[in-house]
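Protein fold
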Amino acid sequence: MTMSMYGASAPVFERMLDNLLTWLVKAQAHAESRRFDSANYLGMRLAPDMLTFASQVRIAADVAKLAVARLAGVDAPRFPDDETTLEALAQRVRNTLAFVRSIDPRSIEGSDAREIVLPQRSAESLHFTGETFLQRWALPNFFFHATTTYALLRHAGVDLGKADYLGL
């Protein structure tokens, strides 16, 4: 049996991006209840050499939109990396969701054998089939950055649990 490339991509990204929006709402409420500026979250990191919270959200959103765009063979919208509030990050996620939801499922089906080339800054481009791109690059990268976002908020005391991560 062959895998549905659409079923393994867009709905998976949509669900976790919806969950991420919930986490951002809870983070805003947490900041308000503790009377601090929610913009304090944007610079958080678990280690000095890791990307910031804002970068984690941006990258999760970008991986989702670029993955479905590459699988569908269309151009992804570009978003500036200029968010300075939780609401602005939430808007980026909403814009990503709108793009992912706008993709015709038929344009992704059959992309398992499509060649996907990822340019690299300091190395040769990476070459994948659509299936290996999705399974070995896009989904792992997406979940890495989404999970890091979740972990940063948990570390900051935001009331999140496994049900929030899973969207239950």
About this structure: Strands lie at 115-118, 126-129.
